[in-house]
Amino acid sequence: MPIGAWTGGAAGPAALCVLAPNASPMTLDGTNTWILGTPGGPCVVVDPGPDDATHLRAVHGAVGARGSTVAAVLLTHGHADHSEGAAAFARACGAGVRALDPAHRLGAEGLAAGDAVDLAGGRLDVVATPGHTSDSLCFVLRTDESPAVLTGDTVLGRGTTVVAHPDGRLADYLASLRRLEALVRDEGVGAVLPGHGPVLAAPDVLPADVVAFYLAHRAERLDQVRAAVAAGATSAREVVETVYAEVPRAVWPAAELSVLAQLEYLKAQG
C-alpha cells in the first residue's frame, strides 16, 4: 500500500512510495517502490521490487488512483529485491524496463549516466554511483521545488549499506559518495528518497549531513579493520567477529562482503 509521499511540486505529490512486503534484516521495512510524476500525467516507476503479485497490484492501483499511466520502469540496480518484479510489472502496463545492466532491461532502451527521463511535472537525471553494486545508479528528481535524489541502496533511510563484494568495490563506493556529497551541496537537494527506509528530508534531516555521515562511517570502519588485522585477524570472518560484534548475527554474511571489499581496498592502498 502507499506509505508516504514527497511533495516536490505545486500540482501534488511528485513522488509516492509503495512499500513491498519483503521486510528483512537486509531490506529493513521492505523495498520502496517509487511512483514519480505529478498526478494526472505520465509517471515513472522506480524499482518495482520483488515478483509479488499483491505488491505489483498495489503499485498498479496507486498509479491508477493518481490518474497516471506508466511511461517507463527504471532500476537503481539489479538486486532481486529491487528488480525481480520489474519485467512482469512493465509488461502489464505496456512499458519497458530501463537499467544500466542489459540483463535487467525489457526493450532496447538502456540507462546510463547523463541520461534524462521526462515525467509529468519534471524530469529525472541519471547519476552513476557504483560501489554497492557495479550497476548502481541514482536519480535526481527535478520539479518546480528543490530537487530530491533517489538513492536505491547507495544511501538508505536508516543504517548503512553493504558493499557487495566482489561486484561492489569500496573505492568506487567512496567516489560515488563524494559525487553525491557534491551534488546535494551544490544543487540544494532537499530530500533523499532511498530504496529502503524512510525519506530523509530537510529541515528535519539534511541530505548533505547524511552523505557526510556515510563517508565518516566508512573511514571509521576502515580504521577498525586495519586494527583488527594488526591484532591478528587473518580472515574476513575473524574481522567481522571483532569489528561487527555489535551487529545482529543475521547480517554478518553481508558484513563479511563489506569486509572483503575493505580488505581489497586496503591492499590496493598499500
Question: Can you describe this structure?
Answer:
The chain is α+β, with helices and mostly antiparallel strands and 270 residues long. The chain has one domain (2-206): 4-Layer Sandwich (Metallo-beta-lactamase, Chain A). 34% of the residues lie in helices and 20% in strands. It contains seven helices and twelve strands. The strands form two sheets. It has a six-stranded mixed β-sheet, with helices on one face. α4 links the parallel β10 (148-152) and β11 (191-194). α4 packs antiparallel against α5, α5 crosses α6 (236-243) and α5 (207-230) packs across α7 (252-269). The longest helix is centred in the C-terminal third of the chain and has 24 residues, at 207-230. It is globular. The termini are far apart.
Topology:
Layout: E1 2-6, E2 15-19, E3 32-36, E4 43-46, H1 53-65, E5 70-74, H2 80-83, H3 86-93, E6 97-98, E7 116-119, E8 122-128, E9 137-142, E10 148-152, H4 170-186, E11 191-194, E12 200-201, H5 207-230, H6 236-243, H7 252-269
Parallel strand pairs: 4-5, 5-6, 10-11
Antiparallel strand pairs: 1-2, 2-3, 3-4, 7-8, 8-9, 9-10, 11-12
